[in-house]
Input
Amino acid sequence: MQNLVKLIYIPILITLFLSCSRLKSREYKNITEEYIMLYQAKKIPQTDKTITLIESYYKKSLELEENYILRINFTQFLYLAKKYSKAVYHLKNLIKLNPDDLESRNLLSWILVTAEDLNARNYPLALKHAKITVEKAKKSLKTTTFLSKQNNKQLSAYLDTLAEAYYQNKYYKMAVTTQLEALKTANDPKDKEELDINLQKYIKAYNDYNKSKEN
Output
């Protein structure tokens, strides 16, 4: 019963607070982030209406003051909420603001190539951004004197996305080659296991394609 009361009154209290005071950008930002956490913890209704409400606070915060980190957090929230088309729209804006934001570019590619909503997919565009991500990541690593496991993990993830983009665009040989590179780059045994599952998928597609050409 206590949880139900919280579920009902949290949005009401925030709305009343907003109507009684002129909030600053930081306060809108805090409310946006609080709502995102509540949504992800499933403590508020998992509805489009809730997402629209969160988006209204997010937009108000940015109107008052630019905040790139808030943009990233909101976009990742949209992805986790499976609002793929909206996530794509905001990710494109992030990349316009910062072309070197490789995490956002990689997430954009991943959504465009794997989204459950097929209408949100765009295989050629996914491949374009995945190539740019890997190219920029490798260029950055060349200028880095200290290579950490985190560097390798990120590059491996980018290569994994690129391999999937090649696969969905039917470039099966490139998918295999790229996934092998991802496996070579990865350090974590669990990551390697997941990467290998995809590799087997790409090898099968490549072999099936070659057989179909022979027939």
